[in-house]
Design goal:
The protein is of the alpha+beta class and about 650 residues long. It folds into five domains: about 30 residues; about 180 residues, no CATH class; about 100 residues, Phosphorylase Kinase, domain 1; about 190 residues, Transferase(Phosphotransferase) domain 1 (Transferase(Phosphotransferase), domain 1, Orthogonal Bundle), CATH 1.10.510.10; about 50 residues, no CATH class. The chain is built from 24 helices and 18 strands. A hairpin with a 2-residue loop joins strand 4 and strand 5.
Length: about 650
């Protein structure tokens, strides 16, 4: 910029021409570019109608004003995407678009210059994330499976908390996984693309729907007329209530309050994070939204815990389906062998777990702790009812219909996302400790929901592992956890690998063979992979198979995740990235001989080594079996005596 240009800019600023400073900066920085090469294609009139039909807006500071400006622009951009298939206006129209938007903002926030006050640059409105400008470019980067999930969770009314939470959770994971490339400025930033796409291309109500605007852009457009009517109604109600008498008012208030306490649902609210970087919306949930049910209410909902209402059983107790007084169907998990001494800890854990929100985690509604004369002490948690039961029901139950490959792929990916959120999204991190097929519940769309946090362990920040009493299910527990009580996130990874093998093969975690012998599913799958027969792991007769490369990838991920060595296993967020993208599966190291291996397998391993002899601190010792029968007691006895002698030396 020349000295003359700099002086012109100072004079303009000194004279205080509104809106002139940003345009002059643009012109002086890019003298070859015209100030208004093209008209703005964005429809700001739609936003104008929404704003003028709502109550007056109050902003506490400049940061809140800039956040409102930014989200309003993204709503308009979603309209542009809806009509044109493009996220951003052309670069030569950026000047005209800022002028049009400034005219609207002047009507809402007087004497507020957008570019100068918020630090935006003119070109940022047309220069976005990873050079993505069109819908087709966006859809080429995001996998089809993720786009289908956005369609499922965001194509509905978003005014209520639960649908909004599900939609925004999917959109956040979309941005974190695929939109992490370079971006220009913070106007058309990567964080805004998923919401723009969902509002303009997915949600059937469109960006101008008040529920959509509130959920995806944190814009509230409440009608001033309805507000005045509400005030009039309130005044009339107060007058009528006063005529009835103070006693009637108090009785009515008590009755309504009691009914409300029984029926109130969990609520979520959206809070704008007011920072200088104008970060995206932060979902906040309060643990006080949990409902504390009475034991009589639960008995009534489950028809006195009728056997016909049992939908699940386990070592902890039974799970019942039931209907609340408002008609909603829920599930009740009733724990057995409880005492009142642990109620405080139980309540605290339930509240912490209820504050963890993710589309692939079961949502808690409430709980109950009570002592009764006949049933003893009771602990019950109340959660959403999953109509498709558990994964265990579909893999090993009485149903004859086999799950198709697309559904199994969806379950595998959703479960991985839920676990990754527990490990790295929740604060403090949560290790589930009991991942198995019966704890993966399926909704009506076969979306998986991780359940049963009864064994969940909260990890203090900075700790690499916990030493704890082993809890879990035989066949799913990681070796380091079963043998030494060492618990890490990768203990859950091992369990996930076993479940993934069950999902792919249709076989249980522990395989029973003829003669009463048993083997681990992970060992069986590894033997096939080592022989180059990874696809033999896939269950016969599975409908709608995918390509061989995709199915083999899932098998390799399962075998790698269930590896006996702790640090060979990938983390859950790495697994999500491998399954969602084209990232290759890391090489799988050799596995040790299974603990329950036959003598013949051990001998083959010894003979396959470079030494072919067993060694000890006393030097090499010959190890020769005298009996030709591989299962003879003589051979087994000599083998274990040699092992014990080596340890003693």
């Amino acid at each position: 910029m020349s000295v003359l240009h700099f002086l012109i800019l100072l004079i303009a600023l000194g004279l205080g021409f509104p809106g002139l400073d940003s345009r002059l900066v643009m012109a002086l920085q890019f003298p070859h570019r015209k100030l208004a090469d093209a008209p703005c294609p964005l429809n700001f009139d739609a936003l104008r109608e929404l704003v003028h039909g709502s109550n007056r807006l109050d902003f506490p500071d400049v940061s809140a004003k800039c956040q409102y400006v930014l989200q309003g622009l993204r709503l308009v951009e979603s309209l542009y995407l809806q009509t044109s298939g493009f996220f951003l206006p052309p670069l030569n129209a950026s000047e005209a678009c800022w002028d049009s938007y400034q005219s609207l903002i002047d009507e809402i926030i007087p004497d507020f210059d957008i570019l100068f006050s918020c630090g935006f640059q003119t070109s940022w409105i047309s220069e976005g994330c990873m050079d993505i400008t069109s819908r087709s470019q966006f859809e080429s980067i995001v996998p089809q499976s993720s786009l289908l999930e956005v369609e499922h969770y965001c194509n509905q009314a978003l005014e209520n908390g639960s649908p909004c939470a599900s939609c925004t959770t999917i959109l956040s994971s979309l941005q974190a996984a695929y939109l992490r490339g370079p971006q220009v400025g913070n106007v058309s930033a990567c964080t805004g693309y998923p919401s723009i796409y969902a509002a303009g291309n997915v949600n059937r109500f469109g960006p101008t729907d008040k529920g959509t605007a509130m959920c995806l852009f944190s814009l509230y457009f409440s009608s001033s007329t309805s507000s005045n009517n509400s005030r009039k109604t309130l005044i009339i109600g107060v007058v009528i209530g006063g005529s009835v008498g103070l006693l009637g008012v108090l009785l009515g208030f008590w009755f309504l309050r009691r009914r409300y306490t029984k029926r109130r649902k969990r609520k979520m609210f959206v809070k704008i994070t007011r920072t200088s970087s104008f970060s995206e919306l932060e979902l906040i949930s309060g643990s006080t939204s949990l409902i504390k049910f009475t034991f009589d209410e639960i008995k009534q909902a489950t028809r006195n815990f009728s056997r016909d209402n049992i939908i699940g059983k386990g070592g902890y107790g039974n799970v019942y389906k039931g209907t609340l007084q408002d008609g909603s169907e829920v599930a009740f998990k009733r724990f057995k062998n409880c005492s009142a001494s642990g109620d405080a800890s139980f309540t605290h854990e339930v509240e912490v777990i209820a504050s963890v929100r993710h589309v692939n985690l079961i949502a808690l509604i409430g709980y109950c702790t009570a002592t009764t004369p006949f049933e003893g002490h009771q602990r019950i948690i109340v959660c959403d009812l999953m109509r498709n039961g558990s994964l265990d029901d579909h893999l090993f139950g009485s149903t004859e219909m086999k799950l198709s490959w697309p559904i199994r792929q969806k379950i595998a990916l959703g479960t991985a996302r839920g676990l990754a959120y527990l490990h790295y999204g929740a604060q403090p991190a949560i290790i589930h400790r009991d991942i198995k097929a019966s704890n993966i519940l399926l909704d009506e769309m076969f979306e998986p929901k991780l359940a049963d946090f009864g064994f969940a362990k909260f990890t203090p920040e900075g700790m690499t592992h916990l030493s704890t009493r082993v809890a879990g299910t035989l066949g799913y527990v990681a070796p380091e956890y079963a043998l030494y009580g060492q618990l890490t996130e990768r203990s859950d990874v091992y369990s996930y690998g076993v479940v993934l093998l069950e999902l792919l093969s249709g076989k249980k975690a522990i395989i029973s063979a003829n003669g009463g012998r048993t083997s681990l599913l992970a060992d069986w799958a590894w033997s096939l992979v080592r022989e180059g027969r990874a696809l033999d792991v896939i269950e016969d007769g599975m409908p709608e198979l995918s390509s061989k490369e995709v199915m083999e990838k899932y098998v390799l991920v399962a075998v790698l995740s269930s590896h006996p060595h702790l640090y060979v296993r990938p983390t859950m967020d790495q697994i999500v990235k491998i399954l969602e993208t084209d990232l290759p599966v890391p090489s799988i190291p050799e596995r040790p001989i299974p603990i329950v291996a036959e003598i013949s397998a051990i001998e083959r391993s010894v003979n396959g080594s470079s030494s072919r002899q067993l060694s000890s601190s006393a030097g090499y010792q010959s190890f020769i079996f005298e009996d030709n029968n591989p299962n003879s007691e003589k051979r087994k006895t000599q083998y274990w005596r040699t092992k014990e002698r080596s340890k003693m030396i």
